[in-house]
Amino acid sequence: MKITHIISSIDQSTGGPARSSTALINKLCENESIDFVDLFTLYSEDPIITNFESPKGKIRFCKPDFLKLSKELESELNESRANIFHGHGIWDFPVSQMAKVARRLDVPYIISIRGMLEPWSLKQSFFKKRLAMFLYQHKDLKNATCLHATAEMEAESIRKLGYKNPIAVIPNGIDLSQYPVKIWKEHKEGRRKILFLSRIHPKKGIEYLITAWMKLDADIKSNWEIEIVGNGDREYITSLKNLIKSNSLEKSIKIVGPKFGQEKIDVYHEADLFVLPTYSENFGIVIAEALSCGVPVITTKGTPWRELNIAKAGEWIDLNESELVRSLKLHMSMNGIELHRLGLNGRKLIEEQYSIESVALKMFDVYNWLLKRSEQPKFVDVWKG
Question: How far is CA 81 from CA 38, 78, 84, 158, in A?
């Protein structure tokens, strides 16, 4: 079996999809029933990786042409001899080029939606997306052999838009070996830390975190600080800094640049609480990373992480200021042992349900099914009319 994956970019700046797709491919390369896995992507100045660990996998960087169309990519896809094509993300042309080639060669293809059909996401750049839907995107999605959603919530959004394809519901996976659990320190020096780590973008709800912080009593936050880690649009970051400065919060809220590799792990380990007050996430890979490191998480119902409440690993809340103030007050009032227990519950949740090993095995089962080599997996929803 040969699988060819396509994603527009794996640059450091692109965030979750680049990390989760390359982690998946790395693990698929270990499957003895897979002969080769390659990933086609456009040239990047700062890719998260330049190749896979296994000789069974290869990353192929293609030169972009006008509007990120790539003649080189289309030529390579035509010659790839893949049994299955797997595209990650929509709207950009590389995955659409893949879909076009797959239909011409009569090769099954999967599209991982990556949250890009969620209601909040569809409202952004609305007219451009409507045009893209008319020109190519609807055709690519409608004719996909299978669509991939990372949670039931995302699958429901896809169905509401009228797509009747089979939908495989498989979460993003975490390579737990890359995210060791933080060591709890009974007598921690310095202030306790709330961490936001993600792409700095209006959809992430960072303003909610800042304004909620302003409404906390001084005695509750006297020994706490917020660290906002990530990259994004310069103008937006400047607006956040101005909000912080205008309310004299420079000593308690800091915005720093993105962290990668061991520096990112260190940032997670320094945190006592992770907060992502987002409007919309199909999965939220940073939530899984924080939990893997043993950090309790507060996030909103714009994510599919209702398990936080069940596992007692933090809290899954409505997206509004009063709820965030309440949840922050609750968790910031806990002592170190209580927060540590929540963090360990989170690590256990990831180990049991989100390990990259289990996710890669599920994706392999989908590939086998699409090639008519096995029965339909239980986690694939087939439209019944």
Answer: 11, 7, 9, 30
